[in-house]
Amino acid sequence: MLAGIQAGGTRFLVGVGTGPDDLRVREIPTRAPDPTVRALLDWLAPFAPEISALGVASFGPLELDRSSPDWGRIGPAPKIEWRGFRWGSLAERLGVPTALDTDANGAALGELRWGNGRGANDLLYGTVGTGIGGGAIANGRLLRGRIHPEMGHVLVPREPSDPYPGCCPSHGDCLEGLASGPALAGRWGRPAEELPPEHPAWRLEAWYLARGLANWVLTLAPERVVLGGGVLRQPGLLTALDAELRAVLAGYVELPSDLIRPSALGDRAGLLGALGLAEELLAARDPPSERGP
Ligand code: ADP
Ligand code: ZN
C-alpha cells in the first residue's frame, strides 16, 4: 500500500491505496504545521504497518535536492508559519521511504499516470487557481532543474488597454500577477466565479493565459497539455484559450487539434501524483531486474 499527501494552502488531502479505484482519502484543513502534521500522522497511523512508501506533493518553494541537509524544507512560502517546515521530519516520524515534489509536478504525474495525460510521453500540466503553476513531463520523466520550475511567474506582454498593475508580491505583472483568480478579483472587483460568461474579463483572461501557455509550449514542446484549477471551471474559457493560443503562435509550430484537455482528476490530481511519486521511489530502489525470482 502507498500513502500520499497533497499539501495545499487551504487544505491537505491525505490518502492510502494504489490508485484512483483503490484510494481512501481524508481532507484536513491547513492550519499551523504542528496540528496539521499531527492530524496527518493520526490518520495514517492505523495504516502505517502496511505502507511501503509515502509521496508528498506540496506547495513551495521547496528544497528538492536529496543530498542537501535541507531536503524538504519549505522556503519563503506565502503561508508564513510553514516557512522552514521540513517534510523530512514528517518522513522520519512515519518511518517510511518518502518522495517529495511540488504540487504542480505531482498533479502532472497524476494526470500522466491516471488522468488525461495517459499515453503521452511529453506532457505539460498547468493549473490556474489562487496561483498559476505548471509541471512538465519530458520523455516520460518529471522535469526538474536546480530548483523546481516556477512556470506561473513567466513574464507576458501587457494587453495595451489593461490598467491593472498585477498582484504578484514579487513581480507585479507576471502571468500569475495578471491572470490568477486573485488577479481577476482584484481587476474586476468581485470573485472570479461571480463574473458572468459574457463579461469582458474572460476575453482578457484568455488573452493572458494564451501568451503564458505559448511560452510554455514553445519551450517544452509538449504533445499534450492538461489544464486544471478553479479559474478554468469558467465555461468556455478553455475553448477561448485554445483558439487564442493558435492565433498567438500563428502556425509557427503545428499543434495537434486535441492538444489541450481539461484535468481528469480535478482536485485529486496532486494526491494521486503523490502516490505516483511513492511508486517511482520504490521502483528506483528496487528495480525489477534486481528483484529475486
Ligand atoms: P487553489 O488554487 O487555492 O488550490 P482552486 O484551484 O479551486 O484552488 O482555485 C481557486 C480560484 O478559482 C479562486 O480564485 C476562485 O475565485 C476561482 N474560481 C473558482 N470557481 C470558479 C469559476 N467557476 N469560474 C472562475 N473562477 C473560479
Ligand atoms: Zn510572480
What fold name stands as the CATH topology of the largest domain? Answer: Nucleotidyltransferase, domain 5
Which whole number gives the mean pLDDT? 95
Number of continuous helical runs: 8
Q: Please give the domain count.
A: 2
Structure commentary:
Helix 3 packs across helix 8 (269-285) and helix 6 (200-220) crosses helix 7 (237-249). The protein has helices spanning 33-44, 87-94, 103-114, 175-179, 181-188, 200-220, 237-249, 269-285, and strands spanning 2-7, 11-19, 22-29, 53-58, 98-102, 123-128, 132-138, 141-142, 224-228, 260-262. Strand 2 (11-19) and strand 3 form a beta hairpin. Helices cover 33% and strands 19% of the residues. The chain has eight helices and ten strands. It folds into two domains: 2-105 and 267-290, ATPase, nucleotide binding domain (Nucleotidyltransferase, domain 5, 2-Layer Sandwich), CATH 3.30.420.40; 121-263, Nucleotidyltransferase, domain 5.
Quick take:
The chain has 293 residues and is α/β, with parallel strands linked by helices.
